[in-house]
Structure formats: structure tokens, C-alpha cells
Amino acid sequence: MPKPVVREPLRSNSRSNRARILATARQELGRNPDVTLEEIARAAGVVRRTLFGHFPGRAALLDALAEEASEALRGVVARKPDGVEAPERALARFVLSIWSVGDRYRLLLALARQDLGMERVSEVLAPARDEATAVLERGQHAGVFHDHLPAVVLSSALEALTISLLESVNAGTWEDDGTQTAVATLVAAGVPEKEAAAVVEGVASEVRADAADTADA
Fold first, then answer.
1. What percent of the chain is helix, strand and coil (3-state, nearest 5)?
2. Rounded distance, CA 208 to CA 216, Å?
3. Which range has the worst mean pLDDT, 57-66, 136-145, 167-176?
4. How far is 153 from 137, CA to CA, in rounded Å?
């Protein structure tokens, strides 16, 4: 007589617990970087032993969040269209895509100050930062963006702008779905405001259509 199979439901439950712990940790750490593992466990609806079964300590939990952010950001970079898109459109698309994973992005930078270390955070953010810098370099060579700053420095400044605007949304002092931030980024890079708004409007409609197609697939 065959033995009953009981391990698959346990594995499924384990995956569910791990995903819930990570989602809760991302939310709670975003509110309070000093939140304890015990508080995260309670908020996730699991016992302390369950959390520690997945993540032996704070460092393990934060590294898992860093890897989750890395995967999300790599996905953003990978979604760029085939061929060479006009630099201003490429930058708008990049900002709109980054906005969709902004909570992970913002959390990483906040935790870098006290937990992960800038080396680890730089490693995670490298693909996104490299892509932004490459787009800016193309735009500078094409005369679309300002060239008074090296592309890597301009990229860093625009990243800080994005994070600042995201913080304003999270604090409830401003509302944005990413489009206004994309316009602000293009303007800061050197694109006239009306042109920037038109570019973002066109790219945003494509991004929404792509998201709808993905959801229906």
C-alpha cells in the first residue's frame, strides 16, 4: 500500500510563509528600519520559530530582501524594447519601470546606511545604475541631455531625485503614479518641459498597454 504524500503541502505552506514574511518585512522596515524580527513575525502572522526557520537572523532576512530587489531591478532593465530607442523615451521608460518597484528600491537605500553596507547595495543596484548611465551617455552624445556633468554623476543626481519624490509619495505629501517623476527627470536631464511631458505621455501609454497584455497572458 503506497504511503500518503504529505510533503508537498508542507513545502507549499513553507513557500507561502516565506513570501508573507518577506512582504511584511519590506513593509515594516519601510516604516521603521529598527523594527525587530519578533515584531515582523507578529505582523506576518507567524510565530518567531517560523521566521527563524526561514531566516536565522536579521542579516539573512535583509539579504533575502536585497536579492528580491535585485531580481525586480534586473527585470526592469530586461524589459527595455528591442533596438535602440530614442534616449529621452528610454529614460522615461526606465523611470516609469523603476517606479513600479520603488518600494524595494527605496528600502534598499535606507537599509544601506546601517545594515547591508554600501558595497552590497551597489552590487544589487549596479544593473539599473549602469542602464541609466548608458541611456544618459547616449542622450548626451545626441545633444538631447545636458553634458555639463559626466553621465555617471548625472545618473546619481537623477537617482536621488527619484528617491526624494518617492519618499514624498510615501509620506503622503504628494501623489504620483510615476509619470510626474518621469517628466521631472527628463527636465532635470535637459529636455524642455512640454517635450518631456509629451514623451512621458506616449511612453506611459505603452507601458500600461504592455502591463495589461502581461496580465491577460
1. 75, 0, 25
2. 12
3. 167-176
4. 11
